[in-house]
Amino acid sequence: MRFLAVLTALLGIVYAYLALGWEARGWERAALAAPFVTIWLVPAVYWVGDRGRHTRYDEWLHFASYVCMGWLSFAFVLTVLRDLALFATGWQAPTPWLLAASVAALGAGAAAAFRGPRVRKVEVPIENLDPALEGLRIVQITDLHVGPTIGERYVRRVVEMANALKPDLVALTGDMVDGPVSRLGRHVAPLAELEPKERRFFILGNHEAYAGAGQWIDYFRAQGMHVLLNEYRTLSFGNASVLVGGVVDPAAGKPDAEKAFGKNETAALRLLLAHNPKLAPLGERAGFDLQLSGHTHAGQFFPWTLAVKLIHGPHVWGLSRSGRMWVYVSAGTGTWGPPVRFGTTPELTLIRLVRRDA
């Protein structure tokens, strides 16, 4: 109830700001209220209530709510910018311009999101890398968020792109789904076609925890994937071995990088899969060489691209360091909530290991 009270108050304040700023009257106020009510319904009915409902009506309500979230974000930012310009220069952009610009931004962002991921190639320089691991290719898929806005067709395209890159191993670093196995299993099914089949790894994200972690663990194991729950597996590449460790997301349990490290194992490289980049200090202390994460979506669209830096810094997007350990944070292969990308691009990441002295 506290959450709903805060949400209702925030939406009410933003609605009053736009209604007054846009000088809405009569039916215009009612029309402006419609997206606010649509946004309110999803958290009020599903996040606080029954997350498991999945009729066609529920799907359409989620989709409409997410689209309204995207539009409202652009409309609010543009109105704030208009008011700042009015204060600084005395010039006021007409309200129809704001409405047109917010709809145009939403359309451009949706087109970027539904166009799907682009391949992002990243070279990670590893000090004293074993020659047998030079050029090792890792494909990372993360934050697909299969659900109201992303389905089987999108997933199949991602799989085809990933297989075309001919990776040596595939890492699925959480938040693949936004719903239960009973509803989304058929949409996620193309992931079973990822290659190479014996080197596919999956870890839990926070959204799997919300959607029924136990069933999704069973599902991905049935697909032949290595599901790492504070665990590790060792792979051989010529005369060198790579240890792949994976930790659970804090939403699903307690992450334990020490268990995932495999201290009694000998490995030329230790790779940690951790959905949330905030877990980097755990991986660094354990002694991993490289951590792959997602979760941030790089902010997904403006202005959240700025806000995410305050929440997730220093590991927001791209390649960075935590002590001696490299951390790569993907911008996400899909989108969550509003099907919008503005200032970011969904990515399918190809990570290639190189010798640092090279």
Describe this structure in words.
The chain is built from 10 helices and 12 strands. The protein is of the alpha/beta class. The chain folds into 2 domains: 113 residues, no CATH class; 238 residues, Metallo-dependent phosphatases (Purple Acid Phosphatase, chain A, domain 2, 4-Layer Sandwich), CATH 3.60.21. It has a 6-stranded mixed β-sheet with strand order 1-12-2-3-4-5, with helices on one face. It has a 6-stranded mixed β-sheet with strand order 6-7-8-9-11-10. Strand 7, helix 8 and strand 8 form a beta-alpha-beta unit. Helix 1 packs antiparallel against helix 2, helix 2 packs across helix 3 and helix 3 crosses helix 4. The N and C termini lie far apart (57 Å). The model has no long low-confidence stretch (mean pLDDT 95).
Total tally of structural domains: 2
CATH fold annotation of the largest domain: Purple Acid Phosphatase, chain A, domain 2
Specify the CATH homologous superfamily of the largest domain: Metallo-dependent phosphatases
Tell me the fraction of residues in β-strands, as a range: 15-25%
Mean pLDDT: 95
Oligomer: single chain
Strand arrangement within the widest β-sheet reads 1-12-2-3-4-5
Count of alpha and pi helical runs: 10
Total number of beta strands? 12
Gyration radius, to the nearest Å? 22 Å
CATH architecture grouping of the largest domain = 4-Layer Sandwich
Which geometry do the CA atoms define?
A: elongated
C-alpha termini separation: 57 Å
Q: Fraction of residues in helices?
A: 40-55%
The profile of the biggest β sheet is:
6 strands, mixed
What's the CATH class label of the largest domain? Answer: Alpha Beta
Order of helices and strands: HHHHEEHEHEHEEEHEHEHEEE
Low-confidence stretches: none
Structural class: alpha/beta
